[in-house]
């Protein structure tokens, strides 16, 4: 039995954004995992409920993890670590480490939580697994007890958080929410693969959806297919009762020009989603995934389907890009 601690505010709402659904012409529901918490909110809490339980069980006193400079995962780790009395060391990727980390968005929250930030270049980031291990060795040498969490909290343990999320949606359907019927497809943003792996396993196990449509925000589809398959195997080894995953389609059509850079069209749809649905999507993850969903709807690929969009959070990543949106806000 895999250990877990309660950190998220659950269940998160399962909502029908009526006006947005009409605009898209899609039978659309939204699972509000942007509401899993306060400043620590987003999809990473569900993974960290299990990963931090393992850290505590091992007697760790220092969490070590990595991500992009504005990593939501690093921020959630820093805040939840602080709440549990654990120190965090965050190894963050940035184009120019010498320029430092601007005190805004997730970095502000990391620093408020007392996390130690170490900046590295994208080239150094390629060796992140070895780098995290060397930071752990350093902590050990100084008498500390490190616990290394991989990028995005995406390993078999972390993915089990999204298996449980699917159990939660199953219970909501059983209560009659979203008219009680399973979905045809779940659409979500993917950056490190753990959410996709857990969704695919949980959606099948709890009969929540036939297909998981994974919108990647960086890299290419074959890379993520390989990464997600590896995480699926790890999670199934931890929970052998899990059967085969749901159909997983890794879609790179909404990836945009680069990680954390959205197209003007994606920004326009982010603004539309706020105006029609009161949803705050971000230009790094959820805005790209939702734009991908919208484009699928326009191409007729979602005709007659029941669609669940998983809102994975990411608000600080929107707020640090305020300037990019200045031109997109004119009233229609
Ligand atoms: C990390 C993150 C994702 C991607 O989840 P992975 O499990 O890393 O693929 C999606 N949305 C937001 C807001 C995130 O922070």
UniProtKB/TrEMBL annotation:
InterPro entries: ACCD_DCysDesulf, D-Cys_desShydrase, TrpB-like_PALP, TrpB-like_PALP_sf. One of its GO terms (molecular function) is D-cysteine desulfhydrase activity. Pfam families: PALP. SUPFAM superfamilies: Tryptophan synthase beta subunit-like PLP-dependent enzymes (SSF53686). The modification N6-(pyridoxal phosphate)lysine is found at residue 44. Keywords: Pyridoxal phosphate. Residues 6-313 form the Tryptophan synthase beta chain-like PALP domain. The active site is at 71 (nucleophile). Its cofactor is pyridoxal 5'-phosphate. It comes from the Bacteria. Belongs to the ACC deaminase/D-cysteine desulfhydrase family. This is 1-aminocyclopropane-1-carboxylate deaminase.
């Amino acid at each position: 039995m895999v250990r877990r601690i309660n950190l998220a505010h659950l269940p998160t709402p399962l909502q029908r954004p009526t006006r947005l659904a009409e605009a898209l012409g899609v039978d659309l529901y939204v699972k509000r995992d942007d509401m899993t918490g306060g400043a620590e909110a987003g999809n990473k809490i569900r993974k960290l409920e299990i990963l931090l339980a393992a850290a505590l069980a091992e007697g760790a006193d220092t969490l070590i993890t990595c991500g992009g400079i504005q990593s939501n995962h690093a921020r959630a780790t820093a805040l939840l670590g602080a709440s549990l009395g654990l120190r965090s060391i965050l190894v963050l990727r940035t184009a120019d480490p010498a320029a430092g980390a601007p005190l805004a968005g997730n970095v502000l929250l990391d620093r408020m939580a007392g996390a130690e930030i170490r900046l590295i270049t994208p080239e150094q980031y390629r060796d992140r697994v070895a780098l995290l291990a060397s930071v752990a060795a350093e902590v050990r040498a100084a008498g500390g007890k490190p616990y290394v969490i991989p990028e995005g909290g995406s390993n078999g343990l972390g993915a089990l958080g999204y298996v449980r999320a699917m159990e939660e949606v199953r219970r909501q359907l059983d209560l009659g929410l979203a008219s009680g019927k399973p979905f045809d497809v779940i659409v979500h943003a993917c950056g490190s693969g753990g959410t996709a792996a857990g969704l695919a396993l949980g959606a099948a196990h709890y009969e929540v959806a036939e297909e998981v449509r994974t919108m990647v925000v960086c890299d290419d589809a074959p890379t993520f297919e390989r990464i997600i398959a590896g995480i699926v195997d790890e999670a199934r080894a931890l929970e052998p009762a899990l059967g085969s995953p749901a159909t997983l389609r890794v879609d790179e059509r909404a990836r945009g020009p680069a990680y954390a850079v959205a197209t003007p069209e994606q920004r326009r749809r982010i603004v539309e989603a706020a105006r029609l649905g009161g949803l705050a999507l971000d230009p790094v993850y959820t805005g790209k995934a939702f734009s991908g969903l919208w484009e699928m709807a326009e191409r007729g690929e979602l005709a007659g389907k029941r669609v669940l969009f998983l809102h994975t959070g990411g608000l600080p990543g929107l707020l640090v890009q305020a300037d990019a949106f200045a031109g997109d806000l004119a009233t229609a």
